[in-house]
Amino acid sequence: MEIILKYFPDLTEAQKQQFASLYELYTDWNAKINVISRKDIENLYEHHVLHSLGIAKVIRFTPGTRIMDLGTGGGFPGIPLAILFPEVKFHLVDSIGKKVRVATEVANSIGLKNVTFRHARAEEEKQLFDFVVSRAVMPLADLLKIIRKNIAPEQHNALPNGLICLKGGELANEAMPFKHKTMMYDLKDYFDEEFFETKKVVYAVP
Q1: For the segment 90-105, what is each residue's pLDDT rounded down to a tens digit?
Q2: Does residue 102 contact residue 132 with C-beta atoms inside 8 Å?
């Protein structure tokens, strides 16, 4: 939990309490339904919570912004971002029902009021959002193809509406076809933890 305060020192007491509750909740749920590698649960705050919050180093969402978290799994990056931005609306979508259940139970336990959930494939979600966020497990081209239909035309933020995803590894070739519509931010520029050496926030306009 200290690592969150290191990079986000201005949290309210309510936000601190919500972040502090995540470890016990995820440890408990992970024992029943595996949403995080069992070896990795001890690194929850660095590898999952802080990683999710990397998006907040790139953009501060304005109140009322609508965001879909695509392939949320156990609630990442949606739940940490929903704690950080209580006036922003998050819609967490995943095709695996038991993962949606974990995310829902965690959000309910910490009293998040700005999240909704849906058990569905990405292609089935037709609502419009300002941004789609994701801890991307699929290539950028596939992600952009899927979410194009979900991006609302009206702009409310410093960045135009689009996709903001967290990806690792060598992304130059993957992003090449979209180089005029893509920006990449190295998380090592914001977090001085070893884990973030190869992690990036990728912003793209579909």
Answers
A1: 999 999 999 999 999 9
A2: no
Q: Where are the alpha helices (DSSP H) in the chain?
A: 2-7, 13-32, 51-53, 78-84, 97-109, 140-147, 172-175
d(CA 29, CA 35): 8
In contact, 29 and 74? CB cutoff 8 Å: yes
What tens digit of pLDDT does each residue of 15-65 get?
A: 999 999 999 999 999 999 989 988 899 999 999 999 999 999 999 999 999
Q: What is d(CA 25, CA 10) in angstroms, rounded to the nearest whole number?
A: 23
Alpha carbons 193 and 97: distance in angstroms, whole number: 33
Instruction: Answer for the pair 76, 104: CB distance below 8 angstroms, yes or no.
Output: no
Q: pTM of the predicted model, to two decimals?
A: 0.96
| CA gap 156, 192 in Å, rounded | 31
On whether the CB atoms of residues 59 and 162 are closer than 8 A, the answer is: no
